[in-house]
Amino acid sequence: MLKLEQLAALVVAAGLAIVSYLLFFSWAGGGGYERRQRTEPKAFLTSEAPEFKDRLSP
């Protein structure tokens, strides 16, 4: 009877592993390696920013 319980536990564990694998890669966008494109920053911090105009320059 112990062998039957071990086999059932193995089948359940394998089933859960397969389902979690499929869900992970479907939610992750299909898997695979896709290189991300670099984007330019939206704003640069410059000395002309309004919050720096009232400060004294060294």
Task: Write up what this structure looks like.
By secondary structure, the chain is mainly α. 52% of the residues lie in helices and 0% in strands. It contains two helices and no strands. The chain is rod-shaped and about 85 Å long. The relative contact order is 0.06. The mean pLDDT is 76.
Write the layout of secondary structure elements.
Blueprint: H1 2-27, H2 50-53
In oligomeric terms, what are we looking at? single chain
| Shape descriptor | rod-shaped
Fraction of residues in helix: 40-55%
The radius of gyration over CA amounts to: 28 Å
The biggest beta sheet, please?
none
Order of helical and strand elements: HH
Question: What's the gist of this structure?
Answer:
Helices cover 52% and strands 0% of the residues. It has 58 residues and is an all-alpha fold.
Question: What structural keywords apply?
Answer:
52% helix; mainly alpha; 58 residues
